[in-house]
Design goal:
The complex is a heterodimer of chains A (232) and B (272). With 232 residues, chain A is an alpha/beta fold. Chain A has eight helices and nine strands. In chain A, helix 3 crosses helix 4. Chain B is 82% helix and 0% strand. Classes of the chains: A alpha/beta (232), B mainly alpha (272). The structure holds adenosine-5'-triphosphate and magnesium ion. Adenosine-5'-triphosphate binds next to helix 1 of chain A.
């Protein structure tokens, strides 16, 4: 049964369409990579999937009991202000917020989860540092840890390895595959790394010039749309 | 000095000023941190001017000031919040228009009807003489509500303030928490208006948070520092205002300014 269904979705900003008539569906445990040039609407689609921006026509539907509080999300550019005083731990812990319902305080489970994810991204030593004083790559890891804390069944990542060094990127891709395999977490990732995407994903969505390709990885490799992109 | 501290505290008006001033300072500081970080500082300012207009109207119509001011300011808070969230219109400009109009209407009504029962000066810059017994009780109840809601929603407020899109996307009702922040701010502004004066109440909201951010770097330490230092500034300010016979709001703001300068120096030294 599909957990996410997009039917005939068109998204636009102030009347200008970014992409038109996009339809696809994902099942629990799928791993979708979204490819496409700069400005093709990948981030816009993410916003649509997250309900931050309404499609101008068509429908985006979650089913199979998926609720918003099970979603983890890593934005491409976080609008976090430069001068915001927050420790790394506070930021990561805030990812667990929706696991605890109405209760006003974090419990031992949430703290453990935050600690685990700090360890996973090897930033435990930064726990008490100030978020705004970190380097770009370190900040990215903190936001990734927060996204992992929030994820129960669906993880949306918009260019997650931006700013990460090659070693950490490779580790991170491994981590995502692991979550996808072992914990059956559905992953939707925007990426510019075609080789990695094709290797790790089960499905590819390629946005280009308002036409789009959606299908399994094997079909993508054979399709004409992948040629120019893969050979680059 | 003419009076000792204990003699000073035996005056009913001074007791009332302290009883109202301390919890209001606490609420203002807590909310202030969120308002600064959300770039909503203008809202506090706008609300205080609207509050002044409401007080003037209440006086003109012979109604209890707070009974008019509380609902009017709460409604305006939701309105101003909407304005500043709407990216299509120029939020700052719109808020400036609302607040200066409210102030102007207040002044015109006051002059036409022969004035407020206390003088205009103390409404604008604060007075420790103005509080009635009913004000004190109402203030305590409302402050208790503000504090309770703030503590209860502390983590949600942090999340919504830090990254609104993330909270929205992961199922936090960010709009509702923005409303909560606006509501709590409205209550705090109305309560603080008499001691601080309508022109200066917004600085009680803004100063402690900004001061704390000079030195502290985690959200919790900023919030705690702002709260403690705001309460100290209000107490010191009220005492000074008693001895020097100056407007209480203005005195408190001066103490806050001194504190800000002190923290800035400490921050600069720490960073080196
Ligand atoms: N807030 C906005 N208002 C108006 N137009 C926008 C807005 N955000 C994006 N656009 C436009 O929508 C189009 C798609 O933008 P989007 O950010 O989705 O691209 P993208 O595929 O994520 O690109 P990139 O690879 O650079 O991240 C672009 O042409 C952009 O100009
Ligand atoms: Mg993008």
């Amino acid at each position: 049964m599909a957990i996410l269904e997009c039917t005939d979705v068109t998204m636009s900003y102030e009347g200008v369409n970014v992409f038109e008539h996009l339809s696809f569906s994902l099942e629990r445990g799928d791993y979708l990579c979204i490819l496409g040039e700069n400005g093709s609407g990948k981030s816009t689609l993410m916003k649509g999937l997250l309900g931050l921006l309404k499609p101008s026509s068509g429908e985006i539907k979650y089913s199979d009991g998926l609720v918003k509080s099970e979603i983890g999300y890593l934005p491409q550019q976080s609008p976090v202000q430069r001068d915001f005083p927050a420790s790394v731990y506070e930021v990561v812990l805030s990812g667990t917020l929706n696991r605890k319902g109405l209760s006003p305080f974090y419990g031992r489970r949430e703290r453990k989860l935050a600690d685990d994810n700090l360890k996973r991204l090897s930033i435990t030593h930064l726990k008490n540092s100030c978020y705004r004083d970190l380097s770009g790559g370190q900040q990215q890891r903190v936001l990734l840890a927060r996204a992992l804390c929030a994820t129960k069944s669906l993880l949306l990542l918009d260019e997650p390895v931006t700013g990460l060094d090659p070693v950490v990127s490779a580790e991170f891709y491994g981590l995502i595959s692991e979550l996808n395999h072992d914990d059956k977490i559905t992953v939707i990732m925007v990426s510019h790394d075609v080789k990695q995407s094709v290797a790790a994903a089960t499905h590819i969505l390629h946005l280009e010039n308002k036409t789009c390709f959606f299908g399994m990885v094997d079909e993508y490799k054979k399709s004409s749309i992948s040629d120019q992109f893969m050979n680059k | 000095m003419e009076y000792s501290i204990s003699e000073m505290m035996s005056f009913t008006f001074m007791q009332r000023a302290m009883i109202v001033g301390v919890p209001v300072a606490l609420c203002a500081a807590l909310l202030g941190v969120s308002l600064i970080l959300k770039r909503y500082s203008m809202i506090g300012d706008g609300l205080s001017h609207v509050g002044f207009g409401a007080l003037a109207l209440a006086a003109a119509m012979n109604l209890a000031p707070l009974h008019v001011a509380i609902p009017v300011v709460i409604i305006s808070a939701f309105f101003l919040l909407r304005i500043s969230q709407n990216s299509k219109i120029n939020g700052d400009g719109a808020i400036a228009i609302v607040s200066s109009s409210a102030l102007a209407i207040g002044i015109v009504v006051t002059s036409l009807t022969g004035g407020l029962n206390t003088d205009l000066y103390s409404y604008l810059f604060g007075s420790i003489l103005a509080l009635s017994k009913e004000d004190v009780i109402l203030s305590l109840i409302l402050c208790a509500i503000v504090l309770f809601l703030y503590i209860f929603f502390y983590h949600k407020i942090f999340s919504v303030t830090f990254d609104e899109n993330f909270s929205l996307a992961t199922g936090t009702n960010a709009k509702a928490y923005n409303m909560v922040i606006a509501l709590l701010t409205a209550l705090t502004v109305v309560l603080g208006m008499q001691i601080m004066g309508t022109l200066l109440i917004s600085s009680l909201i803004i100063f402690p948070g900004l001061t704390a951010m000079r030195v502290f770097k985690s959200y919790r330490s900023v919030v705690l520092s702002a709260a403690v230092q705001s309460v100290i500034c209000v107490v010191v300010g009220l005492v000074l205002s008693f001895y020097m016979e100056t407007a209480s709001g203005a005195t408190i703001v001066c103490v806050n300014l001194a504190c800000f300068i002190l923290f800035s120096i400490v921050g600069a030294i720490k960073r080196r």
